[in-house]
Amino acid sequence: MDLRRRQWFLLAILLSAALLIELQLSTAATAPENLVFQVRSKFAGKREKDLGALRAHDVHRHSRLLSAIDLPLGGDSQPESIGLYFAKIGLGTPSRDFHVQVDTGSDILWVNCAGCIRCPRKSDLVELTPYDADASSTAKSVSCSDNFCSYVNQRSECHSGSTCQYVILYGDGSSTNGYLVRDVVHLDLVTGNRQTGSTNGTIIFGCGSKQSGQLGESQAAVDGIMGFGQSNSSFISQLASQGKVKRSFAHCLDNNNGGGIFVIGEVVSPKVKTTPMLSKSAHYSVNLNAIEVGNSVLKLSSDAFDSGDDKGVIIDSGTTLVYLPDAVYNPLMNQILASHQELNLHTVQDSFTCFHYIDKLDRFPTVTFQFDKSVSLAVYPREYLFQVREDTWCFGWQNGGLQTKGGASLTILGDMALSNKLVVYDIENQVIGWTNHNCSGGIQVKDEETGAIYTVGAHNLSWSSSLAITKLLTLVSFLIPFFCNIAL
């Protein structure tokens, strides 16, 4: 009996030691490098009622892949200068830099391609770079049978096995068409305070083979347009579907110094007040309740901003000016000019109302747009007036001009109204918010992996000043008869 007891005793010691080793291994599995081992053991043999925990774990793990992206920005919103904002991204392998206009009013990314018809060959703004799929080892064509093709091509002639074509028509009558390509996009990942590293993802974009309208002109040409709309085909939606980013982005357009900030990710400072997006709109549309000019509220009809399917006001970084229906534009201008009866107005290029003025701009009233949830957006005189010479100013407000397919006038707040403000687009929660901000400073974003808060600074990509000079001389030439009349 004594021998048998000793054997059982030794066996118990061995079993205890084995359990201790297993416990130590299990404890060590909590270290980051052993995460995969821990996941496998944690959910092994779970019953159906525990599957929700597995999904919750996946959501949590994927959230650690989400990071903030810093898009270097250049340009301004001055009609007499550049009149657009553009960012720099890398495409292909090896990576090549492309300058693309950032546009919240459209969806897909497209760039001019080698061999394009009516694509600009040179620009007064930046050096153009045509994309060449044959020069990228990671480029692949997208066929009509690809699910993505249905997002951009509903034409019946797109047959399985053929390359998917795209056509985009813009509100100003311009168009681009070509075919879809899948390739690597290279971006700047926020890694610290005013610091970035490199990251990449795979994206489908348009390879432009033919342009028309202003897209075929060379004066202010860039390599393409990067759409930040809400649809599945947009730049941000594609990155979000891969777990690269959140469906949230923000911009701060610096109209004083040029350039500014454009980030993808969660902005934590400064805080913004938000207003709901209109659910049935294809654009970033919000409900406008009233317009104040100084201390006076404009008397507008209840359907002043009703344009059919596109009700409300469209927030669009791809538009330079502010476009208003006649029923809004006329009372707005009348109220602004009520205290400036002395001004001699003159129309330039059939679009701009200009005048001779040498006094301080703060004599003009601030225009404030009032939205749902008590959110307001103030547009100051220095933002809605632009200077074409030392003693001559023009209004940036535009009456009509941009319309729906049904002919209704659209209300669009472009860069002129959005400048010098941090504007946040939270697609996941379907809200848009903004606050006045010094865009030459920084904003703070959250690193979803570590929870760290990092500062993202402003950029101002270099561009040629010859474009601004050319546009300014053009405006001045139209104003010469006006100046002569004043002299007389």
UniProtKB/TrEMBL annotation:
One of its GO terms (biological process) is proteolysis. Keywords: Aspartyl protease, Carbohydrate metabolism, Glycoprotein, Glycosidase, Hydrolase, Polysaccharide degradation, Protease, Signal, Xylan degradation. PANTHER family: ASPARTYL PROTEASES, EUKARYOTIC ASPARTYL PROTEASE FAMILY PROTEIN. PROSITE patterns: ASP_PROTEASE (PS00141), PEPTIDASE_A1 (PS51767). Pfam families: TAXi_C, TAXi_N. Belongs to the peptidase A1 family. InterPro entries: Aspartic_peptidase_A1, Aspartic_peptidase_AS, Pepsin-like_plant, PEPTIDASE_A1, TAXi_C, TAXi_N. The active site is at D103, D316. Residues 1-28 form the signal peptide. The lineage of its organism: Eukaryota, Viridiplantae, Streptophyta, Embryophyta, Tracheophyta. This is Xylanase inhibitor C-terminal. It comes from the Eukaryota. GO terms for molecular function: aspartic-type endopeptidase activity; hydrolase activity, acting on glycosyl bonds. Residues 85-435 form the Peptidase A1 domain.
